[in-house]
Amino acid sequence: MLAYIVRRLLILPFILIGVTFLVFFMMQFLDPVQRLAAYIKSPEELKNLSSEDIERLIKRYGLDRPLWVQYLEWVKKIVHLDLGWSEVAHQPVKDAILSRFPATLELALFAVFPVIWVGIWLGVISAVHRDRLLDQVIRVFAIIGWSLPSFVFGIFILFILYGVLGLFPPGRLSLWAQAVVSSQEFKSYTGLLVIDGILNGRFDVALDALRHLVGPIITLSYLWWAFILRITRSSMLEALNKEYITTARAKGVPERLVIHRHAKRNALIPVVTVAGMMVLGLLGGVVITETIFDYPGIGRLAATASQQLDYPLILGITLFYGFLLVVGNLIVDVLYAIIDPRVRLE
Amino acid sequence: MSRLLEVLGLKTYFFMEAGIGKAVDGISFYIDEGEVFGLVGESGCGKSVTALSIMRLIPPPGRIVEGKVIFEGEDLLKKTSEEMRDIRGKKISMIFQEPMVALNPVYTIGFQIAEAIIVHYPDVSWDEAWERAVKMLERVGIPNPRRRAEEYPYQMSGGMRQRAMIAMAMINNPRLLIADEPTTALDVTIQAQILELMDELKREFKTSILFITHDLGVIAEVSDRVGVMYGGKIVEMGDVFSIFDEPLHPYTYGLLSSLPKLNEEGKNRLYAIPGVVPDLLAFPEGCRFRDRCSCAFLKCEDDPPMIEVKEGHWVSCWRYAEDV
């Protein structure tokens, strides 16, 4: 097991280099002036640029030099986490990403666990009751979740929770809580407001942050939950048809254990892939849901950056998400190995 | 010898959209204590369905529609599902053709054997169950049993897996072992070893065996008595010598003629029974073999009775009826 993880970790740097290659290659579609934007460090620098300055800067940063020289220079820069200035966020790209990511992380963390638990649970029930009423009801519910676009379902949820009930507002914090969080006494430990609130002893802030999470969580959950459920159901049905299930029954294993011990463990293997995709998708930001609920996550940052052609920020987020994907896939692979011994010892 | 298992008029049908598949259609046989009863026939003749019917593990849309399965004097078909669960793996256990797919790929061999103990004896600790599993693995001839118990099925060879499977089946000292084509997927040399092992265990544990195979050579070697199945019915039944020396049913005769013989010169082509086994839904009325039978006559359009030609040697064929 340990050998497997070490082996995977050894491959990691190579994949990361591959990611930088890809991002760098994409950058070559921009002309030197556009690429220069990634090297500007402050708004003052940006304001006072004349066209001669631009020429001079292009020379200085070597944007007209051979590609491999440019690549090395660029890598040197990103290794030092120097990703340039974001005009959209009015702060360095690194800070812009790091300030939005905790919000996205918080949303993802709160959405992931209920989705996976409920999805697997209902998927198993659905498979065990195949074609009976319970299965049909669950499947209809899942199909609706799967086919309802999030911009429809999200607005509907916002309308009910906020418009009608007035209970769960959009945004990330109420104004008063925002003031508390911005104050000197409130220490930021994790950037996750619910946890920080509890750690600071401000349970009212934690509760306020939680209230703002309900809407986006429900919106995201329904879609992903339907997805996890469908995968679990089909792989569970497949597992239940396997001969080792007959063996388990033939040796007198109670039906409860046949399902939850013998079939489920095997059925979870494809679910892990999908769940991994889901977590990475959520961490990469969910533009539509964040926009509907005015939630300041990384998805909205990326969307704004794209609209306003904020190249440094776009590149920074691309790079960040690339790294996230690589690390996330590593975790999924390790989970695979835990569930399936065949992977572990290959 | 006393009677351990008696199957009486068992019918297991599959209720499919295309029609009713009569996979097992009224078969009767018995197994005495310590006896090996061989059930032989081509694939699709209902051998495996018979085995699963005894275990009451017929998957839908299949259902046992009629008959009795008397085990130790009690009808298994009347047991509750919990009583039946306790019998499976404790008094009647089963091994399968493909130990690769019959063992759960994500659990160790030791765990799967120990589990068979725990589900029947919840008071036994996992440590003790594991110890017993290791001992059993040693008994079935697996070298390094302690290390092997920690391994997963895919780390073992086919023969080792089947030995592990047998260890799992024998761990609770069952009265009856149902072996469904246990040697079919194995090399001939491994086959012989497995058969020898089963023979040893049978003597040691005084277990009766229902041995299912399509391989007449294997049947001749292991069985005390034999039932020949065709199209969901037993067409001939008797002790192993009667069946092989004086086959009565044209189907048994055909099967035996299609075996290659060592003492004949290789000039003659191997005999094959004409035609193919029809689809489950397409068997003819009356004698199910009559379409492929060279001796069929008008009477064969009626269901042939089971006729005891010699003591203990039964055949289901109109040719042996006295008043035709």
**Architecture of the largest domain in chain B, according to CATH?**
3-Layer(aba) Sandwich
Compute the number of strand runs of chain A: 2
Give the helix level of chain B as a range of percent.
25-40%
Task: Work out the strand percent of chain B.
Answer: 15-25%
- Helix coverage percent of chain A: over 70%
Tally the helices of chain B.
11
Q: What structural category arises from helix and sheet content of chain B?
A: alpha/beta
Instruction: Assign the structural class of chain A, choosing from mainly alpha, mainly beta, alpha/beta, alpha+beta, or little secondary structure.
Output: mainly alpha
Radius of gyration of chain B: 21 Å
What oligomeric state do these chains adopt? heterodimer
Order of helices and strands of chain A: HHHHHEEHHHHHHHHHHHH
The neighbouring-strand order within the major sheet of chain A is 1-2
Mean pLDDT of chain B: 89
Q: Which H/E pattern describes the elements of chain B?
A: EEEHEEHEHHHHHEHEHEEHHEE
Describe this structure in words.
The complex is a heterodimer of chains A (346) and B (324). Chain A is mainly alpha-helical and 346 residues long. Chain A has 2 domains: 2-91, no CATH class; 100-171 and 213-339, MetI-like fold, CATH 1.10.3720.10. Helices cover 76% and strands 1% of the residues of chain A. Chain A has helices at 2-27, 32-36, 43-47, 51-60, 67-79, 93-128, 133-147, 150-164, 175-182, 193-199, 203-240, 243-250, 255-283, 287-292, 298-307, 311-339, 341-344; strands at residues 85-86, 91-92. A two-stranded antiparallel ribbon of chain A has the order 1-2. In chain A, helix 7 (133-147) packs across helix 11 (203-240), helix 13 runs antiparallel to helix 16 (311-339) and helix 15 packs antiparallel against helix 16. The N and C termini of chain A lie close together (11 Å). The mean pLDDT of chain A is 85. Chain B is α/β, with parallel strands linked by helices and 324 residues long. In chain B, helix 4 packs across helix 5 (126-139). The longest helix of chain B has 18 residues, at 188-205. Chain B is globular. Chain B starts with a strand and ends in a 9-residue tail after the last strand. The A-B interface holds A 242-244, 246-255, 257, 262, 265-266, 339-342, 345 and B 52, 55, 57, 85-90, 93-94, 96, 98, 101-108, 115-116, 119-120, 152, 154-155, 165, 168-169.
